[in-house]
Amino acid sequence: MTTTDVRVLHADQWELFFDRLERGFGGPPDPVEERALWRRIVDFDRMVAAWDGEELVGTAGAFAFRMTLPGGAVADVPGVTMVSVQPTHRRRGVLTAMMRHQLDDFRDRGEPFAVLTASEPGIYGRFGYGIASRQMRGTLDTTRISFHAPEGTDRVRFRLVPPAEAVEVCEAIYAQRVPQRPGMLARQPGWEQEPVLDPPSARDGAGELLCVLAELDGEVRGYARYATQPGWSHRGPDGTVRLRDLEALDPVTYAALWRYLSGVDLMSRITFWNRPMDDALLQLVSDIRRCDLGFRDGLHLRLVDLPAALAARTYAAPVDVVLEVEDAFCPWNSGRWRLTGDPKGADCARTTDAAELSLSVKELGAAYLGGPSLRSMAGAGLVRELRPGALAAASAAFRSDAEPWLPHRF
After folding, report:
1. Tens digit of each residue's pLDDT (9 = 90 or more) over 182-213
2. I need a surface site. Which of 136, 143, 211, 327 has the fewest CB within 10 A?
């Protein structure tokens, strides 16, 4: 173990902090544009560095966001980011010290939960983070599939606009989408520039980022940001449309955007890396086998103040259950809690009543946004039913009518 001193970062330490962050991730330096953006939007009061004497050996931080919860409520949430440990100090307690500092700080700020996206998903479970959403990836063979065209699709018109010039209209559409799905983050000031970052060094053989606006009856109703990567084989053109973002306000515009992308000249496929698991795309394509779909973990969520977090959301069905929760890293959450709730609201308080479900805070965080079900976790032995019927009722109550999803990168 290392005697680690974790301190809030000073602004004049930023360059050293970011240099060590890049070294911790083992990659080339971030493009100048990205580094400059992070410097503009970072909240130094939420950034910490771990020191071994005079040596900076660990980095961690958080951004302040607003997130949609099941039922449509929006809550403040810190998004954990920029976590790294120098290779000389691995397995010496540096990460644990930074996580301890962060979670205590979140609690002091009155923030009932925290979220992150993980470079390695196996790291954060020991600190109580559960995988609360997944993201779907795919490669669509546009030479072998077609897309359903809802009535009115032929009325949609398209206009290519430089991505930086379309930020305002795209952000207005994104903002309307945020309340419709748990896990979506409202874009805070400054963050509107992140989706249009396009340094040539990060294009990996593709062309510049493009933005297409979809207009229905004269109103912009959707957009897609993408790049094209040319390719050729002995049979002719074999390029790839690499989709970054796609949002639409109605099914007609949504279908029209996918049909537009599938019709880009000289391209044979569309690749995407982050769509919701219940994306309507799955209903639009003619042959799901030609979509080469997969998934990975998305948003990781940690309950910091358990009763406040469980009372902040609503529930799909009436629920009255006593939860026995284990939380070794934040012991103030451990114990028995009675959760009562329905689609109108909820309450959670300590109780001495007999426990009806037993689980760790990690599983409770995973279920919080309505993604992974308590029933499926019980099937893996991670949730124990102590009263017959409690599992079915609680599992149904925690579910959301839309899969949680995080399209916002941080």
Report:
1. 999 999 999 999 999 999 999 999 999 999 99
2. 143
For residue 108, give the H/E element and its range: helix 94-108
* Other residues' Cβ atoms within 10 Å of the Cβ of residue 239: 18
How close are the terminal C-alpha atoms of the chain, in Å?
A: 30
Tell me which residue of 247, 250, 259 sits closest to 211, measured CA to CA: 247
With a CB cutoff of 8 Å and minimum separation 6, the contacts of 273 are 135, 137
| Cβ contacts of 15 within 8 Å, gap of 6 or more | none
- Predicted pLDDT at 29: 83
Q: Which of 269, 198, 273 is nearest to 233 (CA)?
A: 269
Burial class (CB in 10 A: 0-12, 13-18, 19+), 100: middle
Q: DSSP label at 98?
A: H
Q: Which of 339, 335, 334 is nearest to 398 (CA)?
A: 339
Under DSSP, is residue 45 helix (H, G, I), strand (E, B) or coil? helix
Q: Which residues of the chain have pLDDT under 70?
A: 1-2
Find out whether 134 and 297 touch, Cβ atoms under 8 Å: yes
d(CA 315, CA 181): 14
Catalytic positions: 124, 410
